[in-house]
């Protein structure tokens, strides 16, 4: 996020949100025990879609840069169709590339 222009203070705040999150479950109106996830944010967390959008913008820029430099090749779904390197949707990322040993290593 710093690479795409976010302030260090903001990135630090977001990292605190990710690394210090805790949850509790209400059952019949009574709050249960607090528990902490071991892997950061999960699907369904209100912050998750926003972080995906921010990080996917950075990832998308890196992929585009790789295709422009020639280290990663795009593919076509049809002869006259557009070249595709990646698709981002909701919280998923699909990468397309050359089906070779070199393409798999990149």
UniProtKB/TrEMBL annotation:
Reverse transcriptase domain location, by residue?
A: 14-100
Q: Which domain of life is it from?
A: Eukaryota
The record's section on InterPro entries has: Retrotransposon-Effector_Assoc, RT_dom
**Which PANTHER family is this protein grouped with?**
NON-LTR RETROLELEMENT REVERSE TRANSCRIPTASE-LIKE PROTEIN-RELATED, RNA-DIRECTED DNA POLYMERASE
Q: What is this protein called?
A: Reverse transcriptase domain-containing protein
- Name its species: Gossypium arboreum
């Amino acid at each position: 996020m710093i690479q795409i222009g976010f302030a260090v203070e903001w990135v630090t705040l977001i990292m605190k949100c990710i690394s210090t999150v805790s949850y509790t479950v209400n059952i019949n109106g009574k709050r249960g025990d607090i528990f902490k996830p071991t892997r950061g944010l999960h699907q369904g967390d209100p912050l998750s879609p926003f972080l995906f959008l921010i990080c996917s913008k950075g990832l998308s820029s890196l992929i585009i840069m790789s295709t422009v430099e020639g280290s990663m090749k795009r593919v076509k779904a049809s002869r006259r169709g557009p070249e595709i390197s990646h698709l981002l949707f909701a919280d998923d990322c699909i990468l397309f590339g050359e089906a070779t040993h070199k393409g798999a290593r990149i």
